[in-house]
Amino acid sequence: MERVVIVGGGVSGLALAFWLQRLASEAGRPLRVTVLEAEETPGGKMRTEREGPYRVEWGPNGFLDSKVHAVRLVEALGMGSQVLQASLRSRTRYITRHGRPVPVPESPLAFLRSPLISVSGKIRLLGEPFAPPAPPNRDETVAEFVRRRIGPEALAWLIDPMVSGVFAGDPEALSLAAVFPRMVELERDHGGLFRALWHLGREKRRSRRNPAAGGMGQPTGVLTSFREGSQSLVETLAGSLAPGTLICGARVQQVHRSLGGSVVEFRDAQGSIRWLPADRVVLACPSYEAARMIRREMSDLAMLLDQIPYAPISVVGTAFEARALQGSPRGFGVLHPRVEGRGSLGTLYDSLVFENRAPEGQVLLRTMVGGARDPVGAMLPDEALLDRVLRDLREVLGVRGDPVRVWIFRHDRGIPQYLRGHPGLLRQVDLRVARWPGLHLCSNAYRGIALGDCCREAETLARQVVPSDPGPRDPPA
Description:
Shape: globular
Distance between the termini: 17 Å
Number of helices: 17
Radius of gyration: 23 Å
Helix content: 25-40%
CATH superfamily of the largest domain: FAD/NAD(P)-binding domain
Structural class: alpha/beta
Largest sheet: 7 strands, mixed
Low-confidence stretches: 209-219, 470-477
Number of strands: 20
Strand content: 15-25%
CATH topology of the largest domain: FAD/NAD(P)-binding domain
């Protein structure tokens, strides 16, 4: 029986274990899977604070239903009745300009009328078809790409808030190929973004005859979660595993190479040291933890993993009486460009996006503070952190009065940052991982930070370990 040990009981590790057990069962292949989770409960940052009628997310708010691997996982788990899609009321998104929220334009005509960008900025953006090509053999940052193709004003007022809101990152530092690979493909295949939009628009018109035709490069689909919050996914995953698969309170000390495989050394919930032999070991944990575990056996790989930084971020949930937001814009949320000088990255209207997040007559907001460009802000004392949040809510959204309830969730290493050179770094990582037979990496530190990315990487690895067509088998002896 092949033995697989997965280190990390977040969504990546749990989804991988689920698919491994399901695929092995379907293939009639004996496989023993063990998941070691350091915390007392699984899930990592996929956690929902359920306090009476409130449902407040610690981290991810859900997934896009255009991400096929996430949808397939939910369907395989039989969670259809628990699925909750974002309300149409939350369609509008806002970006702050000069202290007031401005709707993000949803059409070319709306863009031409929008005050987000000046007339000169719009003229510069319309010159995109004449932008110079990408420099050869250079991993451009997001900022370099945007300035080259659509100008500095579009970077400051459109792309910067989006990058800080999604990645908590700095567009001057993030690798375009790593965080927006679709943009690289569109420029390479069509020579520019406007040409790509024209081509994709034509494909979309044909989609009536070809339902599989894709949309444009930006994220598409409807934000989707669960009635009791995103934690429902990890709870269902954990409950779907075979008895004895998941071991919580198991902190891995080291992973050792051994003849024909590996040995995982961990300290169990009672404080005893244990050793678990494995044919395959999957490090489904943050890259800095993976580096710690394999440093003695492969220091060069550990040094590479240590080069992936994480941005600290704090999530501040605030519940207000609905009347406190009378006159405030309603929608998905608002993001603040760096040039606005705000104390937070932005705010989501959670109870407008999803029903059942706050009691009747109240509104639940979640505000993000910190990120790669403000690590100190993320770790401010609670009172100072809340003061920052309330100042932005009052000045930008016009929120009146004090919140009736506050939650503060801190992530000192919150979101991995794919800096310039990240694709090359991954190539070096892959070369070294290949030198350790049976070792795998599977977390959001490498090829996508979102829930849908984690689902994709987990299922892809599971299908590599247990192919759907195992080929001819030897006849029984």
